[in-house]
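Lab meeting, action items carried over

1. Structure of the two-component assembly. Owner: GW. Status: complete.
Input record:
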Amino acid sequence: MRRLRVKSSAGGYDVIVGRGAWRALRGLRGYSSTFILTEPGLWKHWGRRFSRDAGLPGASPLLVPAGESSKSLPWAGRVASELLERGADRRSMLIAFGGGVVGDLGGFVASTYMRGIDYVQAPTTILAQVDSSMGGKTAVNIRAMKNLVGTICAPRLVVSDPRVLASMTPRAFRSGLYEVVKHGILSGPGLFGWLEKILPGLRVSNAALLETLVVRAAQVKVDVVSRDEREAALRHVLNLGHTFGHAIEEATGYRRYLHGEAVAWGLLMVIRLAELAGRLDPANGKRMARLVRAVGPLPAVAGVREERVLGLLTRDKKAVGGKVLWILPERIGKVCETSDVPREAVARAFREVQRGEWNG
Amino acid sequence: MRRLRVKSSAGGYDVIVGRGAWRALRGLRGYSSTFILTEPGLWKHWGRRFSRDAGLPGASPLLVPAGESSKSLPWAGRVASELLERGADRRSMLIAFGGGVVGDLGGFVASTYMRGIDYVQAPTTILAQVDSSMGGKTAVNIRAMKNLVGTICAPRLVVSDPRVLASMTPRAFRSGLYEVVKHGILSGPGLFGWLEKILPGLRVSNAALLETLVVRAAQVKVDVVSRDEREAALRHVLNLGHTFGHAIEEATGYRRYLHGEAVAWGLLMVIRLAELAGRLDPANGKRMARLVRAVGPLPAVAGVREERVLGLLTRDKKAVGGKVLWILPERIGKVCETSDVPREAVARAFREVQRGEWNG
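Predicted assembly:
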């Protein structure tokens, strides 16, 4: 079990990672009541163990349907109404027990319910455990754009138990690993080299190795968000691979790819873009691309319309005045931030990866 | 023209009060784009002058229907979508030009659009100019409860031009003055005594006197919120009259009373409650009640169900664990905060005011 510490404007919070991490919830006292937000399938499998570990036996959770469509303003309103119905007040606490959807929705509701109550992230997917549960970003989707509406509000605590990852489908598991690869590129040769060794043979059943993986990858996120909660500058680096990734997800209506899969394509494209922009030498680019590929097969991008993706890039939340902000990998452990990338290079990077003309 | 300064966690902001205050908007630079949120009737009367003064000639505002029903999650989603449609990015700015509804909705949208953009309050009602535009509280209503979902997010600037108050209906104008009376009770003999002199003869057309009134009443709010942005303690005093007031509004479905009118009844009831609790001597109570009555006639509370109102008190956002937090006036310029009030006294205060058995 490991305790990582995130610094934040509100004073900071712990991230507890390891088998048995949920027990840390017992240490949270002084709340008038505690509520759990989760989704039915997950609760069916893990609810009993979670509520026992958390010291909340017999808890009756607030349920939202699994899947992205719950991350909406109407669902935020429903959850807030149910909290009120059940007597939640300003000193109540909400635990978001689930993956990115439950975490983002739960954080949004908690940060706005009666103008803000405390909440805990108890992430249950690899993506949430190494990335989305930390940093205090909350959001819901508006039809026009994913995560368009949200808040920055630090959780009170994050508890990540990797045992729960055993319930993930292989595809969802791989999807989360692409974010781990991103963290490897951002972090440096230590984590990157270790991932090159262990990723090809990683099994969801290898609990000890998974725990190490989550701790090491989560540490990267903790380090970045501790330095810059509002992502005015430093936090931008976490967007590596996401500029193309978000546009690809949006262009395909969020139906074809899991988030991590779109990020994987985004990573390949931005690696190639960095090469084309003369920022990254091909040997390093090859090594990065190989680690992305090592996670496993990706759904094809063959049919995705180039003009649509390129048009969507300027709508990225980091774009200002129509200028796209690119995070380009320069070497393992170093990225740069620039808006000065020729549009032709962007189109070419997309096209070469899409057509398989460049494979790293 | 007066410049008041609010201190806040984000560094503070100015409140400009006076004829011509909108011109201060010209000093805000560095935004990629500026948007105005308002309602059609107001814009028709004041849009040209506002956009000229603000240095935004020809501005095409985002419109929401007048009235409380626009302060909702669906409208927040629509406004966010329209902002995206029009190209708003993280460096854009939103001006909320309107009364409490537009201010609360605009603040909520701005504080959550792409996880937060800057916004300006340009309040156009007396209630908004002396109260709701300052302090950074934003909110939308959920069917279950008014202001259930919201944020605390300081505006970049507040610009209050009292000329616009000339467009208010007499009833809405009086409704706002009840909040001014509340500020008088909180502030002390200076403001209170001045209000006793000027309120009975105040006309909406007396621009110079109105300007002084807005400045003096706004200063009370500025002082309180500067000391306590998150209302953990000090800011609670602003709730004077609102505990009963909110319950009365809720019990009548927000249809019978304007907000200030419900607060006026709430003030009368809490003055009587303070007397019954032995916290306030009757001479002072009489003087406070007389100033409430001096504003003008109130819609009757005859038909409002006592059990319903008393039941709703525990749902107040300041209630914790079912205990109501009362702000009781002790004398002009001093209130106390207590949960230790017998339920019988609460019922009696409500009943005596409702039946006209106590009139101060």
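2. GW to write a short summary for the group page. Key points so far: The CA atoms of residues 228 and 235 of chain A lie 6 Å apart. Chain A has twelve helices and eleven strands.
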